[in-house]
Write a structure and sequence with these properties.
Blueprint lengths: L1 H25 L1 E7 L14 H11 L5 E5 L7 H15 L3 E5 L2 H5 L4 H17 L3 E5 L9 H18 L2 E3 L25 H23 L1
Parallel strand pairs: 1-2, 1-3, 3-4, 4-5
Helix pairs in contact: 2-7, 3-5, 5-6
Length: 216
Amino acid sequence: MHTVFLRLRSIVFLALMCIGAQAQASQSTLMIVGDSLSAAYGVETDTAWVNLLRERLDEEDHDQWQVVNASISGETTDGGARRLPDLLERHQPDIVILELGGNDGLRGFQPPVIRDNLSAMIEASQQAGAQVLLVGMQIPPNYGQAYTRLFSQMYPELSDQFDTALVPFFLDGIYNSDGLMQDDGIHPTGEAQPLLLDNVWPHLQPLLQETTAASR
């Protein structure tokens, strides 16, 4: 009887190990590399768009996805490009959301430099086997219309060049609406966080579905 019990316990243990291995194998990772707009600057973390994304993934039966938020307030494309190789190696993401460039633009960095940094990040992500969702930004015309135009054109041009998904403008419907921007005029309020997610979701959802289907 004791021998039978030990055998049964071994079988149960092995079955649980197999279930755990299968669950781990089916886990997918979505990594966000962004600046303060994705780092919950000035808003409660629980209400920030990245946390709302986690909730929506569960609601939409994408609960196999884990979200890694590697965003840092004040981050530039140069900083992101330097951090990215280690992040890719550590987290091995299936999808990378690149939400950078706004700080570069506000500081007047040259568009070719910003573009080169974003290009390097897209290429590194794709070479690591991740799909990329590029988040487009626009800036006020502080440095003249020519600079503003070159800046905003970078994102669709990079999306075409590297065949990535694109959010045309992250702050669409937010930046010029009452009550949706903080007093600094740069960062969205807590009330705007669901709208940020709504701007991202239609472009992210096909990538989620494609990656999930490929893993089956």
